[in-house]
Structure formats: structure tokens, C-alpha cells
Amino acid sequence: MPSRSLRRRTALLGCAVLAATAMTGAVPAKAAALRDVMAVGNGQGGTVSFIDTGTYANLGSINVVPDLQERLDAMTPAERIGYEAVNAAQGYRKLVDDMAVSPDGATIYVSRGALSDAVAFDIATKRMLWRHKTEGFKADHAALSPDGKRFVVSATTASKAEVIDTATGSLETSFATGTYPHANDYSPDGRILYNSSIGITSLPKLLNALKGSKAVTAVDAATFKPLRTYTFDYGIRPAVFTRDNKTMFAQLSYLNGFIEYDLTAGKTTRTVQMPFSDKAAKMKPDDYPQNSAHHGMAMNADETKLCMAGTIDDYVSIVSRPGLTTDGTVHYATDALPYWTQTSPNGHDCFVSLAEDDQISVIDYRTAKEVARIDVGRFPQRERAAKLTPAALAALNPAKG
């Protein structure tokens, strides 16, 4: 936990900035245009919180399941059975799986896990613009194209990724993936879209061969035609890709660490084992959350450091490239469940979701030290860097979640 003085300084800084903005009123157009934020999907709470990436203040949230009861009432018997089955396999009801904000800072797109759909909201008016029902019984990780025109969502049980037109909410196309598609990641240059599959997580490790195809499917980001498929023995968890499109760093199901993977040669070049905590060392692999020992990986702006969430170990480590040596580790309370990491727009902060503590921890890549801890909504997981308009900011619900 951060010290009391650190928490106090963070809170005072955030309040001072917000107060100054309120007192001065209008600010120069350039400064007021858009504000850098980190959007945090509160999976079980059904909200998205927005954190100012400069002050670490929680600016408020938006409810992205205002139609929850309507959706439940409208389910067919088969859909309701699928909904309950997904919740049982997950161990809880995930209402927000992933999200992204449009480049103009006005619209939020959300993949609503257990509701198996994707929706768009005008943030300032909180009006739902469209809803797209994804195939199957779970909508998973998503990615917004760099130009903001397409929202790509993994349709988990259908083993495909769906490409949605953000202007209309209509399905533009889809492409085949491995079994239980998970992450969607655009390459840094925006030319390639990588989809990672994890296999059927409800099966035990002993039956790994029956989990299906565990693969990274690379498709052309303009046409969504397949370019190459990389296969693995275990499911691909969070991954990051270098700007030259030659290297992937990825976490794998059951691995307490990560791999370095050569995308040109199609082979693992290094496997890094991270330390087990006392608690984690006693766990059985089938007790890992959704098969993941470590779930959360990010890379700083100059690609010299990685931010690695040790999910079952309750820590996050900063690892330096190219040696892949650990600079430092921040430890959290037992069962805090660090479950995702994301690099801030400033390039040197790593935001870490502490899912069971309903908090975000901010780590400085340069020092490997925690610089802030922020309360958010229930069960934060996915985080995405974004920008918001003044009108969107003004419409957020008070900072309770």
C-alpha cells in the first residue's frame, strides 16, 4: 500500500487541479480540447471509470448497462442458459469486458461480456447509439481501429472475431480465430491485427489437449484477411508487440512468467520464470483464475521496459529489455488480484488493475515504485488510454466507481 502521505499528496494534487479549472472557467481552446484519461472497465459493477493520467484523480464514471434488466428480460431460454453457464464458468458476472473511446473523445464503445453484445454511448448525453448482438454467449476483449471506424470484438464461444462499423453498429465482417478468442491487438503501426485464443478454460490442465486451438491469428488490418497463424501449447494471455513487428512478449496459461517470441521465425526465443509468492506456490494450476497465473502485460513508450502483473502472486514487476531482468517489484495485499496493466499516454506510468481491491495502482516505469492508488468501481480489469471532451467530462457520474 502507498504511504498515507503519498495518498494525501495524490488526492490534494487532483483536487487542486480540478478546483483551479472550476475557478478560472474557460481555458485556452488548445488546453481544453481533450483530456488524457485512463478508462477503467469495472467488470462486475457495470461502469467505466475515468482517471486523469496527470493528477491521478478519479474524474467519475458512466453506467454502461442502463438496460441490464431489459436485456435479461429479452433473452430467449437458450440465451438465458448460455448466460448462466458463462457466469458459472467465470465465477462471477462480468458486465464490462472491454471498451474504447472514439478518437474525438465523445463516444465510448463497450464489449459487455456476459450480455454477449457490443454497445456505443454518447458520453455527454449518456444515450445509447447502437447495440450489436455478438454471436454465441460471450463478448470478450476488443480493440478500436486507429482511425476509430471499426470496433473488433472476440465472440468467445463462436471462435471468431467480429468487426463492427462504429458509425452504425452493423457487422462489417468477421474472421476465424483459435478456440475461445481472447485479446485483439493492433500492431503499433496499425497494419496488422493480432487475435489471441486461450482454449476452453473450463477444462482442467490435464485435458489441455482437448481445449482446442491455442493460437495467435494475424490478419491484415485493412481487409481482415489472414496473414499468418502462430500455434502454441497453451493459451495466449495478454501480449505486447514491438514497433518493428518482429517480437511478441506474451503470458501463457499456467505460466508464472512470460515468453519472448520471434514473429518472423515463428518460435519462442526465451521463457522467463517469475517468482512464486508463498500463497501461489501452494495453489494448483486448476485453481488459477481462468487458467492464468500471470495476466497483465504492458510496455513503455520507448520499448525498454515491460510491466508484468503477477496475478496469483499479488505483485507487479518492471522488467528491462533486452536483458529481461527485473528492475523492481511492487507487492500488494494477498488476493488483491492484479489482473491487467496498461501504459499511460505519458509513456512512463503503468496502470495496474487490482480487481478484488476495487483499486488502480500506478507504477513509474523509471523507478519501479508505486506513485498512486485510486479507488474505482467493482472489479476493475481492462484499462484503455483515451481522451475525453469537456462535455463528456462534465457529464460523468460522481467519482464513486
In short:
The chain is mainly beta and 401 residues long.
Describe the structure.
Helix content is 14%, strand content 43%. It is mainly beta and 401 residues long. The strands form seven sheets. A four-stranded antiparallel β-sheet has the order 3-2-1-28.
Features:
401 residues; mainly beta; 4-stranded antiparallel β-sheet; 43% strand; globular
Strands ordered across the widest β-sheet? 3-2-1-28
Kindly, what is the distance between the CA atoms of the first and last residues, rounded to a whole number of angstroms? 20 Å
Q: Supply Rg.
A: 20 Å
Number of beta-strand segments: 28
Beta-strand content bin:
35-45%
Q: What is the average per-residue confidence, as pLDDT, rounded to a whole number?
A: 93
pLDDT under 50 segments (min length 5)? Answer: 1-31
Query: Quick one: biggest sheet?
Result: 4 strands, antiparallel
The backbone outline, from C-alpha atoms, is globular
Q: Structural class, from helix and strand content?
A: mainly beta
* Count of alpha/pi helices: 6
Portion of residues in helices?
A: 10-25%
Question: How are the elements arranged and paired?
Answer:
Elements: H1 4-24, H2 29-32, E1 35-42, E2 47-52, E3 58-63, H3 68-74, H4 77-90, E4 98-101, E5 107-112, E6 117-122, E7 127-133, E8 139-144, E9 150-155, E10 160-165, E11 171-176, E12 181-186, E13 192-197, E14 215-220, E15 226-231, E16 236-241, E17 247-252, E18 257-262, E19 267-273, H5 278-281, E20 297-299, E21 305-310, E22 315-320, E23 325-331, E24 338-343, E25 349-354, E26 359-364, E27 369-375, E28 380-388, H6 390-394
